Amino acid sequence: MKAVVLDGYTMNPGDLSWESLKEISDLSVYERSPADQVIERAKEAEIILINKIRIGKDQLDQLPNLKAIFITATGYDNVDLEAAAKRSIPVCNVSGYSTESVAQQVFAMLLAITNKVQLHHESVSRGDWSRSDDFSYSLGTIPELAGKTLGIFGFGRIGKRVAEIGQAFDMQILANRRSTRHDRMPGVSFADRQELFQQSDVISLHVPLTDETQGLINKNSLSLMKKEAILINTGRGGLIVEQDLRDALQNGTIKAAALDVLSSEPPPADHPLIGLPNCLITPHLAWAGFASRKRLLEETVLNIKAYQKGSPRNQVN
After folding, report:
1. Residue 40 annotated among the catalytic residues of the structure
2. What are 106-149's pLDDT values in tens digits?
3. Which residues have C-beta within 8 Å of that of residue 245, sequence separation ≥ 6?
4. Is 236 a catalytic residue?
5. Which comes out higher in pLDDT, residue 180 or 141?
6. Above 90 in pLDDT, residue 180?
7. Which of 236, 246, 293, 295 is catalytic?
8. 228 - beta bridge partners?
9. What is the DSSP letter of 36?
10. Residue 313 annotated in active site
11. Number of other residues whose CB lies within 10 A of the CB of residue 267
12. Which residue, among 307, 316, 313, has the nearest Cα to 24 in the 3D structure?
């Protein structure tokens, strides 16, 4: 079975092995594939593995040998599911693999803002402590998370894990989700959007990007938030109207933001949020912890084995 990985670098930049895939297929791996090379590289493949490569009807029409698509991610908006279904091509994804990694990143970012660890390290490295008149100093007020209210938009696997870690910090947890019937969790209160915006000291976004959630964070919702509030986004960049957030950060509507995702990735050098002193940005790496990527590869192998047995798993079309 001929298999082609079209954009393998982000999942495996070199610290994982492709051997498990080589054992079950005739494998070709490309770290990156420009759009104009996708067809040439995939034309002989029975299956392709993609992360962010876009596969639409035009591409499918030029890949007559293609029998299955495996997405090395949870999101699948980069594949025309309807066109694939018409060709009886299963599209399979992986969900749940990055829960621990993303939740860890949420609190890494939150603590980076509240405790200013890097800023204090840089201060000491500059000699500020050596020149200090006191045995201790800080670069600003350091708040305790205990007793603060953590608002979570989206209460799936990641949202629940963030809630559990927040509870370990003795934070009060508010959550917002369309349906709460099956999501009850001790110590978690559910609130509508307005209540969550108004009551939360920290807001963490964990909803998918849909027509309903596009621009969830905008001028109006930001105006409801506390002036000391911190916004964290490890979901999708499109959840935020980025110019509105820039304005809010510059005029003090909210205290700070920590973002792992932007609406355009990679972003232009003049992106409106890059360079703001109260906006911490990381390059869409929350999902990419080693254990997370290892699980992703393992689950993808299981998806392929299931397809080979005639029973595709995690099929989304």
Report:
1. no
2. 999 999 999 999 999 999 999 999 999 999 999 999 999 999 99
3. 217, 222, 231, 257, 273, 279
4. yes
5. 141
6. no
7. 236
8. none
9. G
10. no
11. 18
12. 307
pLDDT per position as a tens digit, 262-317 = 999 999 999 999 999 999 999 999 999 999 999 999 999 999 999 999 999 999 99
The crossing angle, in degrees rounded to 10, of helices 99-115 and 290-308 is 160
Would you state the structure tokens that stand for residue 10, as one six-digit string? 């982000």
Instruction: Compute the distance between CA of residue 234 and CA of residue 219 in angstroms, rounded to an integer.
Output: 20
Q: Could you identify the residue written with the tokens 């232009």?
A: 268
Q: What is the pLDDT of residues 92-104, one digit of tens each?
A: 999 999 999 999 9
Where does CATH 3.40.50.720 sit in the chain?
2-97+290-308, 99-281
Q: Which residues are CB-neighbours of 220 under 8 A, at least 6 positions away?
A: none
CATH no. of 99-281 = 3.40.50.720
153 Rama class: left (phi>0) / alpha (psi -120 to 50) / beta: beta
The yes or no reply on domain 2-97+290-308 and CATH 3.40.50.1860 is no
Query: Which residue is listed with tokens 């610290």?
Result: 15
The mean pLDDT value for 209-218 works out to 94
Residue among 284, 293, 295, 299 flagged as catalytic: 284
Name the catalytic one among 40, 122, 212, 265: 265
